[in-house]
Amino acid sequence: MRFGAKAWSFLKVGQSGLLVAALAMASGCRPTGGPPAPAAAGVCWRADIPARHRPIFVPVAAQSPDILSCAADLELAYLSEGAPVIGAYQGWYLFIGPGAIEGAERLNLIRYPLLNKAQRASLDRQLRALLVARSQSGAP
User: Fold this and answer.
1) Concatenated DSSP letters of the chain
2) Which phi and psi (to 5°) does residue 117 adopt?
Protein backbone atom coordinates (compact mmCIF):
# COMPACT_ATOMS: atom_id res chain seq x y z
CA MET A 1 0.00 0.00 0.00
CA ARG A 2 1.38 3.40 -0.95
CA PHE A 3 0.85 6.59 0.94
CA GLY A 4 -0.21 9.64 -1.04
CA ALA A 5 1.26 13.11 -0.64
CA LYS A 6 -1.52 14.08 1.77
CA ALA A 7 -0.65 11.19 4.08
CA TRP A 8 3.00 12.20 4.14
CA SER A 9 2.16 15.85 4.79
CA PHE A 10 0.01 14.72 7.71
CA LEU A 11 2.97 12.76 9.07
CA LYS A 12 5.22 15.79 8.73
CA VAL A 13 2.73 17.93 10.66
CA GLY A 14 2.54 15.20 13.30
CA GLN A 15 6.33 15.06 13.55
CA SER A 16 6.61 18.82 13.95
CA GLY A 17 3.93 18.70 16.65
CA LEU A 18 5.91 16.04 18.48
CA LEU A 19 9.04 18.13 18.15
CA VAL A 20 7.29 21.17 19.65
CA ALA A 21 5.94 19.05 22.51
CA ALA A 22 9.37 17.53 23.15
CA LEU A 23 11.01 20.96 23.18
CA ALA A 24 8.36 22.34 25.52
CA MET A 25 8.85 19.45 27.94
CA ALA A 26 12.63 19.77 27.76
CA SER A 27 12.38 23.46 28.59
CA GLY A 28 10.22 22.71 31.63
CA CYS A 29 6.92 23.87 30.11
CA ARG A 30 4.03 21.59 30.93
CA PRO A 31 0.34 22.11 30.41
CA THR A 32 -1.14 22.99 33.77
CA GLY A 33 -4.74 21.88 33.34
CA GLY A 34 -5.59 23.29 36.73
CA PRO A 35 -4.36 22.67 40.26
CA PRO A 36 -2.67 19.37 41.12
CA ALA A 37 -4.47 16.71 43.11
CA PRO A 38 -3.15 15.80 46.58
CA ALA A 39 -0.33 13.27 46.36
CA ALA A 40 -0.41 11.80 49.89
CA ALA A 41 0.26 8.07 49.68
CA GLY A 42 -2.79 5.85 50.22
CA VAL A 43 -5.26 8.66 50.92
CA CYS A 44 -8.51 8.79 48.95
CA TRP A 45 -9.90 12.33 48.74
CA ARG A 46 -13.22 13.85 47.79
CA ALA A 47 -13.08 17.25 46.14
CA ASP A 48 -15.51 20.11 46.54
CA ILE A 49 -14.93 22.60 43.76
CA PRO A 50 -16.65 25.94 44.33
CA ALA A 51 -17.23 27.97 41.19
CA ARG A 52 -13.98 29.58 39.98
CA HIS A 53 -12.00 28.51 43.05
CA ARG A 54 -9.41 25.90 43.89
CA PRO A 55 -10.71 22.49 45.00
CA ILE A 56 -11.18 21.77 48.68
CA PHE A 57 -10.20 18.18 49.51
CA VAL A 58 -11.66 16.07 52.31
CA PRO A 59 -10.21 12.62 53.07
CA VAL A 60 -12.59 9.69 52.44
CA ALA A 61 -10.22 6.82 53.29
CA ALA A 62 -6.79 7.07 54.92
CA GLN A 63 -5.45 3.67 53.83
CA SER A 64 -6.79 3.07 50.35
CA PRO A 65 -4.55 0.41 48.73
CA ASP A 66 -4.92 1.58 45.12
CA ILE A 67 -6.70 3.95 42.75
CA LEU A 68 -9.49 1.44 42.02
CA SER A 69 -10.31 1.08 45.72
CA CYS A 70 -10.55 4.85 45.94
CA ALA A 71 -12.76 4.90 42.84
CA ALA A 72 -15.04 2.32 44.51
CA ASP A 73 -15.33 4.51 47.63
CA LEU A 74 -16.24 7.50 45.45
CA GLU A 75 -18.67 5.39 43.37
CA LEU A 76 -20.45 4.48 46.62
CA ALA A 77 -20.91 8.20 47.29
CA TYR A 78 -22.18 8.67 43.72
CA LEU A 79 -24.72 5.86 44.10
CA SER A 80 -25.84 7.19 47.50
CA GLU A 81 -26.23 10.80 46.42
CA GLY A 82 -27.09 10.49 42.73
CA ALA A 83 -24.79 13.36 41.77
CA PRO A 84 -21.36 13.31 40.06
CA VAL A 85 -18.39 13.07 42.42
CA ILE A 86 -14.84 14.32 41.95
CA GLY A 87 -12.06 12.87 44.03
CA ALA A 88 -8.32 12.35 44.05
CA TYR A 89 -5.78 9.63 44.73
CA GLN A 90 -1.99 10.01 44.83
CA GLY A 91 -1.83 12.93 42.43
CA TRP A 92 -4.65 11.82 40.10
CA TYR A 93 -8.14 13.26 39.84
CA LEU A 94 -11.05 10.80 39.74
CA PHE A 95 -14.33 11.67 38.03
CA ILE A 96 -17.38 9.59 38.89
CA GLY A 97 -20.50 10.29 36.86
CA PRO A 98 -23.36 8.62 35.02
CA GLY A 99 -21.29 7.79 31.96
CA ALA A 100 -17.97 6.62 33.35
CA ILE A 101 -15.39 6.38 36.09
CA GLU A 102 -12.38 8.27 34.79
CA GLY A 103 -9.02 9.58 35.94
CA ALA A 104 -6.82 12.49 34.87
CA GLU A 105 -3.52 14.01 35.95
CA ARG A 106 -5.14 17.42 36.32
CA LEU A 107 -8.64 18.79 36.61
CA ASN A 108 -8.85 20.03 33.03
CA LEU A 109 -6.69 17.51 31.18
CA ILE A 110 -7.64 14.41 29.20
CA ARG A 111 -9.60 11.85 31.20
CA TYR A 112 -8.91 8.14 30.93
CA PRO A 113 -11.42 5.40 31.76
CA LEU A 114 -10.55 3.40 34.88
CA LEU A 115 -13.27 0.74 34.51
CA ASN A 116 -15.10 -0.55 31.46
CA LYS A 117 -18.91 -0.89 31.48
CA ALA A 118 -18.92 -4.53 32.58
CA GLN A 119 -16.47 -3.85 35.43
CA ARG A 120 -18.51 -0.87 36.59
CA ALA A 121 -21.75 -2.86 36.44
CA SER A 122 -20.18 -5.56 38.61
CA LEU A 123 -18.89 -2.98 41.09
CA ASP A 124 -22.28 -1.25 41.21
CA ARG A 125 -24.08 -4.54 41.99
CA GLN A 126 -21.77 -5.10 44.95
CA LEU A 127 -22.07 -1.51 46.18
CA ARG A 128 -25.87 -1.51 45.88
CA ALA A 129 -25.97 -4.71 47.94
CA LEU A 130 -23.82 -2.94 50.54
CA LEU A 131 -26.20 0.04 50.57
CA VAL A 132 -29.19 -2.30 51.08
CA ALA A 133 -27.40 -4.11 53.92
CA ARG A 134 -26.52 -0.77 55.56
CA SER A 135 -30.10 0.50 55.32
CA GLN A 136 -31.45 -2.73 56.86
CA SER A 137 -28.96 -2.62 59.73
CA GLY A 138 -29.49 1.08 60.40
CA ALA A 139 -25.76 1.81 59.88
CA PRO A 140 -24.84 5.19 58.31
Assistant:
1) ----HHHHHHHHHHHHHHHHHHHHHHTT-----SSBPP--TT-EEEEE--TTS--EEEEEESS--SHHHHHHHHHHHHHHH-S-EEEEETTEEEEE-SS-EEEESBTTS--EESS-HHHHHHHHHHHHHHHHHHHHHT--
2) -60, -40
For residue 30, report the phi and psi dihedrals to the nearest 5 degrees: -135, 145
44 close to 60: Cβ distance less than 8 angstroms: yes
Please give the pLDDT value at position 33. Answer: 83
* pLDDT one-digit tens code per residue, 34-55: 899 999 999 999 999 887 788 9
